[in-house]
Amino acid sequence: MTPSILQRRTRRGMPLWLEISVVLAVKLLLLWGAKVLWFSEPLARHMTVPESAIEQQLLGTPGRDAPPVHKN
User: Fold this and answer.
1) Per-residue pLDDT tens over the stretch 23-60
2) pTM reported for the whole predicted model
3) How distant, in Å, are the alpha carbons of 34, 38, 41 from that of 44?
4) Buried b (16+ CB within 10 A) or exposed e, 14-47
5) Whole-number Å distance between alpha carbons of 46 and 44
6) Could you give the count of Cα atoms lying within 13 Å of 22 in the half-sphere of its Cβ?
7) Which residues lie closer than 8 Å to 53 by C-beta, 6 or more apart?
8) Spatial distance between the Cα atoms of 55 and 17, rounded to a whole number of angstroms
């Protein structure tokens, strides 16, 4: 009988526990890199957005400082 594909692969490659550990380490490094790259600090600290504009975009309700919406 011929050995299955899984058996042939594990005989030649890394042990399964080592392969899983390497994949998890790479994933952790990628997640950490994404956090540092995109979520650590804003690029322009002087730029601010009024809270009412954020409320308008997220909730769809006019905020305190938002101009009135005219419907025609």
Assistant:
1) 999 999 999 999 998 887 766 777 788 888 888 888 88
2) 0.46
3) 19, 13, 9
4) eeeeeeeeeeeeeeeeeeeeeeeeeeeeeeeeee
5) 5
6) 7
7) 63, 65, 66
8) 48
